[in-house]
Amino acid sequence: MLNCKLRPVFKQAQVLSAPLWRHKMQIRGCASRPATFQLLEDSLVLNYGEKPMHFNYVWLRDHCRSAASYNSQTHQRNVDTGGIDLTIRPDNTSVQDDHLILTWPGGHVTKYSLSWLAENSYERQKQSRVQPRILWNSDIYKNANVPSAKYDLFMSSDNEVKKFLQNYLLYGIAFVDEVPATVEATEAVTQRVSLIRETTYGRMWCFTSDFSRGDSAYSQLALDRHTDTSYFQEPCGIQVFHCLKHEGTGGRTLLVDGFYAAEKVRQQSPENFDLLARVPIRHEYIEKSDTHRNHMTGIGPVLDLYPWNKELYLIRYNNYDRSVINTIPHELVQRWYVAHRMLTTELRRPENELWVKLNPGKVVFIDNWRVMHGRESFTGLRQLCGCYLTRDDVLSSARGFGLQA
Ligand SMILES: C[N+](C)(C)CCCC[C@H](N)C(=O)O
Ligand SMILES: O=C(O)CCC(=O)C(=O)O
Ligand SMILES: [Fe+2]
User: Fold this and answer.
1) Which domain of life is it from (predicted)?
2) Which of 95, 179, 258, 279 is 20–30 Å from 73 (CA)?
């Protein structure tokens, strides 16, 4: 938050393109910070805090929070945006008691608190992260000693769920221990935080190395680090695993923070990072058997970034399911492979690998938009159950607890 004691420096003259006309007004109340504004052709510039903020007039009318314009019970807009004159400008503008007051042609009055405007400005959004995270390699994660939730408390205490979600948001993985080794208990655990996302694999799924589906997951083979359902237009947000039984050797789970690796690429080569973020590729899942017919494709870049602040929010990385590359013009293909190799090199550094044996009782939640999973080959009977969760509902639960998500 901006601090009252910090007096902002007013340098707007250099930053602004020549205004048609100017109106400056400075308010110095006891509790208020000084605020000045200028009226440009299509926007108002507010100096309140460190950097000038620009508010377009149509935007200001569109975001009016008066009872006529906005239903604060339902948090929904009443204003018909399609009916706002695109050349609208306020007839009168003033700052009083930490509020910006605009009178529009026709007499409608809009009153914004300056802190609301600052909070909701593009300039603020551009500087801030949507999701605070702690990026990790194996040592960072282990040294953080992140506690696992315990089943009993997790099922009865909302505060326990809150702590769990906080860890999940920060690290992209979180564990619940002492869960009864049943599908029902696993399902009950997931329902403390979200809704299950049903897919072609089922709602709650239980699988073993029986080749019941046309996918290498249903074998005893090792699986390299990857994200799941990269062939969905929106890959599943969260994956939950619970190993109900393993009578044999091997089968440890590999976890790698894809964002840690991607940020290493960003530091070493912004060009490679940019290429991975810009070039769309396709993933696919084709299954043709007597019992299952599926053909899914999803198209998107390896790295998805928020356009306004370049924050990474999703990684698609699955060498098994990556489909024919025909979305990259020939002059970029070689460069794309070089960039992809740099990411692969980072993802494969042994120090970035977190290996865990999922024994019965331990349920892991994995952010499938961030953290890659894989497994070691194994022998014997190994039964895993789990599900995918809808990301929107996990984040909604987190926000319900007041967490930033
Ligand atoms: C988890 N479960 C066994 C149900 C499905 C596995 C899907 C595997 C697929 N290759 C992918 O990466 O999406
Ligand atoms: O068997 C495992 O541990 C995980 C396999 C896998 O990658 C998956 O089911 O998505
Ligand atoms: Fe997988």
Assistant:
1) Eukaryota
2) 95
ipTM for this prediction: 0.99
Q: Are residues 171 and 73 in the same domain?
A: no
Q: Give me the sign of the Cα torsion angle 184, 190, 193, 195.
A: negative
For residue 405, being part of any structural domain is answered with no
Q: Domain containing 307: what range?
A: 138-400
Strands 43-47, 36-39: pairing is antiparallel
Which of 74, 97, 127 is the last residue in one of the domains? 127
Q: Are 152 and 161 in contact (CB under 8 A)?
A: no
pLDDT digits (tens, 9 = 90+) for 110-148: 999 999 999 999 999 999 999 999 999 999 999 999 999
Please report the atom of ligand 2 found closest to the CA of residue 239.
10
Instruction: Indicate whether 3 belongs to any domain.
Output: no
Residue with tokens 């007004």: 25
67 and 183 fall within a common domain: no
Distance (angstroms) between ligand 3 centre and the Cα of 155 equals: 27
Domain membership of residue 1 (yes or no) is no
> What pLDDT was estimated at residue 31?
55
- In tens, the pLDDT along 151-168 reads 999 999 999 999 999 999
Do 236 and 147 sit in the same domain of this protein? yes
Strand 196-197 relative to strand 173-177, pairing: unpaired
Interatomic CA distance for residues 322 and 254, integer angstroms: 20
77 plus 171 within the same structural domain: no
| Residues 111 and 160 grouped into a single domain | no
Regarding the beta carbon of 199 and ligand 1, being less than 6 Å apart is answered no
Instruction: Look at the chain and report how many structural domains it folds into.
Output: 2
Cβ of 257 closer than 6 Å to ligand 2, yes or no, is: no
Give the C-alpha separation, 44 to 27, whole Å: 17
Q: Two tokens at 392?
A: 């929107």
The number of the ligand nearest the C-alpha atom of 253 reads: 2
What is the token pair recorded at 325? Answer: 């590359």
